[in-house]
Amino acid sequence: QVQLLQSGGEVRKPGASVRVSCKASGYNFNTYGITWVRQVPGQGPEWMGWISTHNGHTFYAQKFQERVTMTTDTSTSTAYMELRSLRFDDTAFYYCARDRVGSYTGNTALDYWGQGSLVSVSS
Amino acid sequence: EFVLTQSPGTLSLSPGERATLSCRASRSVSSAYLAWYQQKPGLAPRLLIYESSKRATAVPDRFSGSGSGTDFTLTISRLEPEDFAVYYCQHHGDLPFTFGPGTKVDIK
């Protein structure tokens, strides 16, 4: 069965960086892109960006463009999201999610989600 | 700026009742790029509806989606106890792929 297993929660100080991992299993990793979504507790999800697992091409939300990097390691079927220069308002759950169908731009619904990784930014 | 608005913010209903949730886009969008998700406390969102009206795998047929242009609707024909949750619409046609603020369906 399809599973996306994310890394555990992290605590960081303002200005630091964090990297969240998302290990996929149960399907051909190279076929479906991975989207990263974050959610502040009590608020709606926020789309951060998308990466093609086929060629590594990325699209980032303008809001995160300067601070985020999404990568994949096809040898381990793992996607990564690094967020730099963390601020207090980056405290949120971070989710990876799989494209429902293969695409070149990630413009599909998201059919499988990781369990979420809580990133807390605190001094 | 493209925005999705969901109404009502909270819907208080009893099991067995019909729920009608609205998602309105700030400009016309293709129904091919409108999805609905369900989220329960402590869990990740779950895909319910894609392409505006198609049920995702294993989604019960009491869930249905409809709409076009700027107005989309998620209907739950008869609420089951497990349906009390928050529901989000998402447009994934143009970057960035925007989510709505959600409608909470709670028990009356």
Task: Explain what the structure shows.
The complex is a heterodimer of chains A (123) and B (108). Chain A is mainly β. Helices cover 0% and strands 48% of the residues of chain A. Chain A contains no helices and eleven strands. With 108 residues, chain B is mainly beta. In chain B, the strands form two sheets. In chain B, strands 2, 4, 5, 6, 8, 9 and 10 form a seven-stranded mixed sheet that branches. A three-stranded antiparallel sheet of chain B has the order 1-3-7, with no helix packed on it. Chain B is globular, with a radius of gyration of 13 Å. Classes of the chains: A mainly beta (123), B mainly beta (108).
The percentage of residues in β strands of chain A lies in over 45%
What's the main sheet of chain A like? 7 strands, mixed
- Judged by helices, strands and strand pairing, the structural class of chain A is mainly beta
In terms of DSSP E residues, the strand content of chain B is over 45%
Instruction: Identify the quaternary structure here.
Output: heterodimer
List its traits.
heterodimer; A: 123 residues; mainly beta; seven-stranded mixed sheet; four-stranded antiparallel sheet; 48% strand; B: three-stranded antiparallel sheet; 55% strand
Please describe the topology of this protein.
The complex is a heterodimer of chains A (123) and B (108).
Chain A: E1 3-6, E2 10-12, E3 18-25, E4 34-39, E5 46-51, E6 58-60, E7 68-73, E8 78-83, E9 92-99, E10 110-113, E11 117-121
Chain B: E1 4-7, E2 10-13, E3 19-29, E4 34-39, E5 46-50, E6 54-55, E7 63-76, E8 86-91, E9 98-99, E10 103-107
Parallel strand pairs in B: 2-10
Antiparallel strand pairs in B: 1-3, 3-7, 4-5, 4-8, 5-6, 8-9, 8-10
